[in-house]
Amino acid sequence: MKPGNPTISALGTTVFTTMSALALEHKAVNLGQGFPDGNGPEDVRTKAAEFLSDRPNQYPPMMGVPELRQAVAAHNKRFYGLDVDWLREVMVTSGATESLTACFLSLIAPGDEVILIEPLYDSYLPIVRLAGGIPKLVRLTPPHWDLPREELAAAFSTKTKLIALNSPMNPIGKVFSREELEFIAGLVVRNDAYALCDEVYEHIIFDNAQHIPLMTLPGMRERCLRVGSAGKTFSLTGWKIGYVTGAPALVANAGKAHQFITFTTPPNLQRAVAYGLSKDDTYFKSLATDLQAKRDFLAVGLKDVGFDVLRCDGTYFVTTDIRALGLECDDVAFCKHITAEAGVAAIPLSAFYEGKAPENFVRFAFCKEAHTLEEALTRLRKYFKR
Ligand code: PMP
Ligand code: GLN
After folding, report:
1. What pLDDT score does 386 carry?
2. Fewer CB atoms inside 10 Å of the end CB: C or N, the chain?
């Protein structure tokens, strides 16, 4: 028999599925895969239920229902001062995963170089490769995850088509500063490239951190595609509603990919997300303050257990250094071990790297109810005898 597509056939199962299955098998508290254990805002779900019975359930417009595209445009204006034409500059997709896929596929021609920053979200590389792109990986250095500016500049070339930038950044909780974004913007302009901005955690930022979309910087409005996710903003990860904002030509081209990936996205979930995006500022503020309290609770607890806890300015993940615990194994073995033996699942950071990666970092998700986080810490304390 002939083999399948080599890029796809070479893939393993995503670490999130693997670790969630292991968590289930061992009845572990799952702080691995990032999904809230709450059920999302009740008013948004009630709206969805109403719309599901009152409104049409057939194919909506390919680019998204007008209500949601208008809401995405208004959200861009409200939070970032961006003027967005909802008709030509917004596209709705089935999750940010699909937004990213459509954007990558629509930008990359075979042989184009694509700059990716490690540690990186696991869907980027396979799609870049499927499109025929050549990944150019640049690593941030722990524990502060600083941007290696010279290396980044050296990674750009005349063949660079785009850079993918995830801020706030999964898994390490980094929020790129204005200075870093200005540096990246300079490289994008100088090399006549594009930026695919994965900003799904845009509203999950802590303390005094500020989320600045790269798109708002000089010269960037025409070169960026900005991706958001209702899964993150409304703690409804199963809904899979994503949205892309960008210049008309870029969004139109991404739409050509989207039309043959999913074509459309469930219309009444889109309408409920439109309602959600129009909620007042208190909703967006409390999303961040609630998660900040959870971050602090988990971070203090993990420190007590003996983990070194790294800084987290955004996202709902906290990265820890496991060396101080003295288990003498790599991050993958460590995560499997604590899932089975301590009853708590986490994600090894090496899953976010290609090739030889640091083996001493583990990610815990804190988008969980207080009692879930408490139970996880109780189990870890007991196991590590703290
Ligand atoms: N990008 C990043 C960085 C993520 O963490 C996620 C969450 N899975 C996604 C994209 C995909 O979001 P969605 O669930 O909306 O497809
Ligand atoms: N984004 C989520 C995480 O990082 C998981 C998404 C998925 O399971 N594909 O945990």
Report:
1. 72
2. N
Give 327's pLDDT tier (boundaries 50, 70, 90).
Answer: confident
Nearest protein Cα to ligand 2, atom 7:
16
Sort strands 224-229 and 242-246 into parallel, antiparallel or unpaired. antiparallel
Contact 323, 315 (CB under 8 A): no
Structural domains in the chain, sorted by start: 6-39+282-384 (3.90.1150.10), 42-281 (3.40.640.10)
Residue ranges in the chain assigned as alpha helix (H): 6-9, 15-25, 42-54, 66-80, 86-89, 95-107, 124-130, 149-155, 178-190, 230-233, 248-258, 267-277, 281-305, 331-337, 370-383
Tell me phi and psi for residue 324, to 5 degrees: -65, -20
Closest atom of ligand 1 relative to the 230 alpha carbon: 15
Phi, psi for 231 (deg, rounded to 5): -55, -40
What is the whole-number distance in angstroms between the Cα of residue 203 and the centre of ligand 2? 17
Is the entire prediction scored with pTM above 0.90?
Answer: yes
Residues with CB under 6 A from ligand 2: 14, 16, 33-34, 170
**Edge-to-edge strands, sheet with 90-93:** 90-93, 242-246, 224-229, 194-198, 160-166, 113-118, 134-139
Atom of ligand 2 nearest to the CA of 16: 8
Q: Which of 241, 242, 240, 234 is nearest to 290 (CA)?
A: 234
